[in-house]
Please model this.
Amino acid sequence: MLACYTDRLSVRPGERFTLHASASAGPCDLEIARVGAGRDVVMRRNGLAIDEHEAPANADRDGCGWPAALEIEAGDWPSGYYDILLTDQAGDEAHHFVVVKPPLGGVRARSAFVLATNTYHAYNWWGGANAYCDVTALMSRRADLPTAMEGAIGVLSTLRPFPPMLIAPPPDVPRLVNLRRRAFGERPWAGDRAWPRRRELSPYDSSAGFMNKWEQAFAAWAEGEGLALDYFTDRDLETEADLLDDYAAVILVGHSEYWSAGERDAIEAFVDRGGRLAIFSGNTAFWKVRFEDGGARFICHKWRGFTADPEAARAPLAATHLWSHRAFARPEAAITGLTFLFGGYHRLGLCAARGAGAYTVYDETHWALEGTDLFWGDEIGADLPLIGYENDGCRLQFRDDGRLAPVAALGVPENLEIVAVAPCAFGEAPGGGYAPVIPPENLAMIAKEVFGEEGEAAEARILRGHAVMASFRRGKGEVFNGGTTEWAHALAAGDPFIARITRNVLTRFGAYGEPPGQPSMEA
Model:
């Protein structure tokens, strides 16, 4: 076995972190490289002596406890995502990562790029299970999916490796979307069906991680744009007071699904005092989570947040569940403008299986579309497709001029400006004549605990929604929400419409230019 992990996921230049590893074919070669548009190596060390250590029982919950293999000091490394690569004598590889933050008091970018590392933790099944499923039992065929899902765990260790296909899949890893529409009479499917079998890709590996996924695609585009970014993890926002104070914009990309209360507090305070939040993500802030033991344990009980968590009985507001749960009185749409509960899936299974994979423009006058040559009724991204996997939305109503207005419900603000929409489904409706591929998840609990309703009619109302591109003002700040996980893939594909919209958003939000407090190069 070759595997590794670090004692922390983020450092500043000059700070040290510890690499823990196990190797059955050592010694190993170590390479650390910043990953974005390219791969810039900052450190190499050959012949690193690493012993083999067992994977403890319950490593998924309790961590590995392996001894330190090496203590590493982050040098004068630019802020970014750094891949940690170990290669053993057999040529096998193991990956982990560390995020390098900007130096304290040093030159900063104008934008804070917050990586969705909480989502990485929730999907991490190394050692057995994750927050969704006993994935090891599923992949070894010891359990079918419903049985394996009963083995999901709500306490996950952050001191263990990540599965290889989550943390470092090859460049050709398929997207989470059907690239073509379902043909007449064709059985529904979800994503590339052959690739996962060839590479032992679990159903949970593609939903999180940086390399060759959404966040790296955005980072590469930003570097090509000359857009400077300072990188942070989700947890940094709750552990470092005033971290966002000097930034013009916060950027979220891909699948920023899991937010702690501390992270949400920081983002809301940032926007309310005049900051700008650019969301190029889907399923954003859906689940409430927390950390314990100094960050060593990630608490994410999901649907069992009020029954399986001892802390919830003592302090209900500390529970982990849907942010839209009525007990919290704090639905995520209050800060994001949209929610996955009013959105859903597109081009997966029978969820909009023959959908265009595109947004349809309903407000061509919105500032985000300036210079895009887009008009009312135009589609954006059908040839990519742009709309896929998970998407956020709101309930809609038509205005007299044919444009759309939001229904202010579940935190969706009345002043939300809707730019474009696409149909989605929260799950596949029963009775379709096909075996479900994307079964709806816990509709009864959502109907009761979010909407205060019960019965089949209440559950059916959740199934149909829309992806929505929108913006709104909050406090002294502003939020733009692209409404889909797949936004960065459109940038990677060179789509001119999405590229121009992204530039419009980031220009308006002050992301380009000199870092705050720095003199102009022309001065």
User: Anything to note?
Assistant: Residues 518-523 have pLDDT under 50 and may be disordered. The first strand starts at residue 2 and ends at 6.
